[in-house]
Design brief:
Length: 227
């Protein structure tokens, strides 16, 4: 305030205020640059690229960037300079012509070869698994055929067992019939023997009666001749 009284009277004469406003103007100037959302860029495959502290060839070097290095775009500056951040966190300026939106051909070729190797390995693995699956299918088919054969044999065995039971039942029935017929035969034989005995007895009785009658007739004839 004393300096205002001496005739300076400007805001820059207030202690500390000038520095504050100067910093503010610097921040506004920095913000006026085109700040980018997270965008990934790659160093081209021509040569190593120098990252500098400021957007100027005379600015000190931050570090050298190898071909294919991945960079995060922070800001698009003037005169073709980009402010970027590498994977280790280092920040600096690089000329746009040394950067690309896509990985360099060398890196893409390496990635393609790696992808090809993985694809070939995957193909070989699938081929092996397919062969193993086919072998398992063959084994299962053989087992299925064996099971069908066993089932067929079992079915025939069941049928044979059923036929065997029917045969046994038939044999038992025939044995019963044979026993019954044997009994009837014995009965008929006894009856025939009885009839034979009766016939013999009848013949014998008839013979005796006939002999007796004839004897009487002879005696009668003899007595008549004597008289």
């Amino acid at each position: 305030m004393a300096m205002r009284a001496k005739g300076y009277g400007g805001w820059w004469t207030i202690p500390g205020l000038g520095r504050t406003l100067l910093v503010g103007w610097c921040l506004v100037a920095a913000a006026s640059g085109q700040v980018e959302a997270a965008t990934t860029l790659y160093v081209t495959d021509s040569f190593q690229v120098t990252m500098r502290q400021e957007a100027d060839f005379s600015s000190p070097e931050v570090r050298l960037l190898d071909t294919g290095a991945s960079l995060e775009l922070i800001e698009r500056g003037s005169k073709g300079w980009y402010r970027v951040r590498n994977e280790t966190g280092a920040v600096g300026w690089v000329l746009k012509r040394f950067l690309s939106d896509t990985p360099p051909a060398r890196q893409l070729l390496s990635a393609a070869e790696e992808a090809k190797s993985k694809a070939v390995a995957e193909r070989d693995r699938l081929t092996r698994e397919l062969g193993e699956a086919r072998e398992r299918i063959k084994g299962l088919e053989a087992e299925q055929k064996e099971l069908l054969r066993i089932k067929e044999v079992s079915t025939k065995a069941v049928e044979l067992e059923k036929s065997h039971r029917l045969m046994l039942e038939r044999v038992r029935s025939l044995e019963v019939d044979v026993g019954r017929l044997g009994g009837e035969n014995e009965e008929l034989k006894r009856h025939a023997d009885y009839q034979y005995l009766l016939s013999g007895a009848g013949v014998l009785l008839f013979g005796l009666l006939t002999g007796s009658v004839l004897a009487r007739r002879r005696r009668s004839s003899s007595m008549g001749s004597l008289g």
